Amino acid sequence: MKEQLVMLKEQALEKLKEQSTLQQLGDWKATYLGKKGELTAALRGMKDLSAEERPVIGAMVNEVREALEQALETKEEALRRAEREKRLREETIDVTLPGRALPLGSEHPLNRLIREAEEIFLGLGFQIAEGPEVETDYNNFGALNVPKNHPARDMQDTFYISEDMLLRTQTSPVQGRVLRANVEAAKQRGETSPQPVRIIAPGRVYRRDDDDATHSHVFMQIEGLVVDRNIRMSDLKGILTTFTQQIFGSDVSIRMRPSYFPFTEPSTEVDVTCYSCGGEGCRICKQTGWIEILGAGMVHPNVLEMAGYDPEEFTGFAFGMGVERIAMRRYGIEDIRHFYTNDVRLMSQFKSRV
Ligand code: 2U9
């Protein structure tokens, strides 16, 4: 029996060396240590032993069992470690490999120009105001001193939804709303004067035009409004000079020509030095050296009065620009319709700066 046990132990340990997976270790354990295993069989044979032999053999069986269990544990640990190391080796990431480029969209050139303008005006202390595209006739025209018989009010030029609802033809109603809200807020607080304003209103506007290379029935505007005490035309010129130099470059200058708008008096059209020829005269500026980019003026006292600002206490300036016209010149886009047909061959040229 003793020899048998010694052999069993040696054979088991020999076999253990050959096992190379955890699965095989399980089988080995069943063969030698399991309920139907060889050691259990040896234990069963003990009943045939004499009373003297039994404790000796019993102790030996236990010793063999412990030795086998110990060997199994050591082997199991070694196998686990080896498997883990193999997995880690296989899963190693080569961090020096170049990344796979994800297809990225690009910012629409109109949005990009608006965002840049917003950043400039925010830096100058302006706030950004927004409002509805469907407006009342009063907000779009009446409150802006546009008389009932003005050609702009014609059905030919404006999309009317009903007698007194329309698609806004400019973003000015947004500024009108801000002025009236300020007057209302001052009243609520029991203050005698409303707060000054310094806002820009970027957004979509509509005109009843036949679309062609330079006309679109829907386009973007950025308008600005400053109302405070002692606001003068020189403040307007300063703000517009700073803005145009930040958008077009620090070497451009502006000039103001007299013009007429119902909502401003005096009114002016503003030109910048041609950014194509630098003022020399070329095809783009039609040999004048100047390019018209916006309209502006001192807010008409009637407009202030209608909104509830006392024109004796407050003065202000306003300006407006068409975003497409500036974007077309800046990016050399020759047909305004490109902005709205969203041809990826055009749009993908405006990859955002990430
Ligand atoms: C209020 C008072 C006055 C907004 C202004 C212009 C001059 C202007 C045009 C530029 C090209 C429209 O897109 S365009 O066709 N706009 O010339 N807009 S002053 O004046 C305001 C606005 C709000 C309360």
From TrEMBL:
Entry's cofactor comment: Binds 2 magnesium ions per tetramer.
Keywords associated with the record: Aminoacyl-tRNA synthetase, ATP-binding, Coiled coil, Cytoplasm, Ligase, Magnesium, Metal-binding, Nucleotide-binding, Protein biosynthesis
Residue sites binding Mg(2+) per the record: 265
Cofactor dependence: Mg(2+)
A Pfam family this chain is assigned to: tRNA-synt_2d
PROSITE patterns: AA_TRNA_LIGASE_II (PS50862)
EC number(s) per entry: 6.1.1.20
UniProt xrefs under InterPro entries: aa-tRNA-synth_II (IPR006195), aa-tRNA-synth_II/BPL/LPL (IPR045864), Phe-tRNA-synth_IIc_asu (IPR004529), Phe-tRNA_ligase_II_N (IPR004188), Phe_tRNA_ligase_alpha1_bac (IPR022911), Phenylalanyl-tRNA_Synthase (IPR002319), tRNA-bd_arm (IPR010978)
Main location (coarse class): cytoplasm
GO molecular function: ATP binding; catalytic activity, acting on a protein; magnesium ion binding; phenylalanine-tRNA ligase activity; transferase activity; tRNA binding
Aminoacyl-transfer RNA synthetases class-II family profile domain mapped to chain residues: 111-349
Keyword ATP-binding (UniProt): yes
Location in the cell: Cytoplasm
Reactions this protein catalyses: tRNA(Phe) + L-phenylalanine + ATP = L-phenylalanyl-tRNA(Phe) + AMP + diphosphate + H(+)
A GO CC term attached to the entry: cytoplasm
Gene Ontology process terms (BP): phenylalanyl-tRNA aminoacylation
Ranges in a coiled coil: 61-92
NCBIfam families: pheS
Family classification: Belongs to the class-II aminoacyl-tRNA synthetase family. Phe-tRNA synthetase alpha subunit type 1 subfamily.
Subunit structure: Tetramer of two alpha and two beta subunits.
Protein name: Phenylalanine--tRNA ligase alpha subunit
Organism this protein belongs to: Tumebacillus algifaecis
Gene this chain is encoded by: pheS
